[in-house]
Structure to design on (158 residues):
């Protein structure tokens, strides 16, 4: 009897652990499927034509991005490692939407024309670009950064 109880105890412990692991895995999968995806974009910009970059982004890029449901959470200018950077954070419902909207934005003829025109007038406005997709951890205090219930939420952050 003693020899049978040890395997049963082991099997019972193993199955309990497996069930707990499954529950944790399911919770993580559910949270990543229902949580928004954030995207961090960092552009190297240049002091000599920085104002032209900001004018183009504010007056044209942000407006055209809005057509494609880009949800800009915030924008910053930073100094890092001797460079001037324009940094912004976007919120997307999921990664597939993020990729599809970027393809649409980059194919937008008005945006292509504006980039060509401002590049000819002011030179290269953007150097290196860093792009990071951020997924919330299960223990993140905020599941989303934008208040999607407020009607002005997407426009007030643009």
């Amino acid at each position: 009897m003693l020899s049978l109880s040890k395997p049963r105890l082991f099997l019972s412990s193993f199955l309990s652990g497996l069930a707990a692991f499954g529950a944790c895995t399911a919770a993580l999968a559910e949270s990543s499927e229902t949580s928004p995806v954030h995207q961090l974009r960092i552009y190297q910009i240049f002091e000599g034509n920085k104002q032209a970059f900001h004018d183009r982004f504010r007056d044209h890029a942000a407006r055209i991005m809005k057509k494609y449901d880009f949800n800009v959470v915030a924008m910053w200018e930073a100094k890092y490692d001797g460079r001037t950077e324009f940094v912004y954070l976007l919120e997307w419902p999921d990664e597939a939407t993020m990729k599809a909207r970027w393809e649409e934005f980059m194919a937008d003829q008005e945006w292509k024309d504006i980039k060509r025109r401002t590049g000819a007038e002011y030179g290269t406005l953007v150097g290196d670009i860093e792009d990071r997709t951020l997924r919330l951890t299960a223990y993140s205090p905020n599941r989303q950064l934008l208040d999607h219930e407020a009607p002005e939420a997407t426009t007030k952050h643009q």
In short: The radius of gyration is 23 Å. Residues 2-34 form the longest helix (33 residues).
